[in-house]
Amino acid sequence: MTKTILAVFAHPDDEAFGTGGTLARYAKEGNQIVLVCATRGEVGEISDESLATPETLGQVREEELRCAAAKIGVSELIFLDYRDSGMVGTPENEDPKAFINAPAEEVVPQIVRIIRKVKPQVVITFEPNGGYGHPDHIAIHKHTLAAFHLSADKQYQADLRPVWQPERLFYTAIPGSFFLEVRDKMRALGMDTADLDRFEEAGEQWPDEQIHAVVDVVEWVDAKWEALYCHRTQFGPNNLFRRLPEETMKQMMGKEHFALAWPEPEEGLALSGLLDGLKG
Q1: pLDDT tens sequence across 244-280
Q2: Cα within 13 Å of Cα(120), Cβ side
Q3: Residue 161 in contact with residue 207, Cβ under 8 Å?
Q4: Alpha carbons 163 and 153: distance in angstroms, whole number
Q5: Binning pLDDT at 50, 70 and 90, where does residue 91 land?
Q6: Could you tell me the pTM of the whole model?
Q7: How far apart are CA 37 and CA 64, in angstroms?
Q8: How far apart are CA 277 and CA 100, in angstroms?
Q9: In the beta sheet, which residues pair with residue 171?
Q10: CA 53, CA 72: separation in Å to the nearest integer?
Q11: Contact indicator for 94, 75 with CB cutoff of 8 Å
């Protein structure tokens, strides 16, 4: 029976690294994949100045995301039309249109509306720290978590279609062991790991023991890699995860990791897929 997975993230490229293989796998197996993106990543990096300017970056990244979505088989792509807030402490934080400045009472009903419309069995978003502490990642986590529960509340926004209760909420959670492996491989090749150290210091690494689903995506790594390459402004030659040999990175990307946020996971839960054992 066809099922629906709803992935809710903040920027173009958020969908590719942590979940690209999983989304591609379930799409190929005939399931519907709906992707929500809160912003167009207007203040992200520009790896090559020939690709975009600060003024055009949002439009360029939208097209990059459409390219990536096609590579991994996304059925429907939805933008919430907010502006990228930038990293903590940057001037972009103060922009009234920045996603972090949008009130919950404005954002949450939009996500509830989407959940009630597409009726997903599974919802995926960031874990509470947003991977590495990006303000927009944390914001979309909070709003999605609230919407996940409110979508089944008959008293909440009764005019927003019939209520719907997804069966599972997963956080995409790259475990600390992944970064240790990257560091070991970089050191073995005599490479500088300073950028990796800064990346890790920016956020709290997700504990391996709190991973509840490890999805084998070896057969879909090429689709994931192609999706990453669609994000040309972000995934340039100097990107941290392009410094190791391509085949090494593809091998490391052969598994994707998730933490079950709802329902409360049983101790020792170890799923091999996000849809395992679902009723709907």
Answers
A1: 899 999 999 999 999 999 999 999 999 999 999 887 6
A2: 29
A3: no
A4: 7
A5: very high
A6: 0.95
A7: 12
A8: 36
A9: 125, 259
A10: 27
A11: no
106 has a pLDDT exceeding 80: yes
pLDDT tens profile 115-126: 999 999 999 999
Residue type at 9 in one-letter notation: F
Residue with tokens 């996500």, as numbered in its chain: 111
**pLDDT tens figures, 50-82:** 999 999 999 999 999 999 999 999 999 999 999
Beta-bridge partner residues of 257: 214
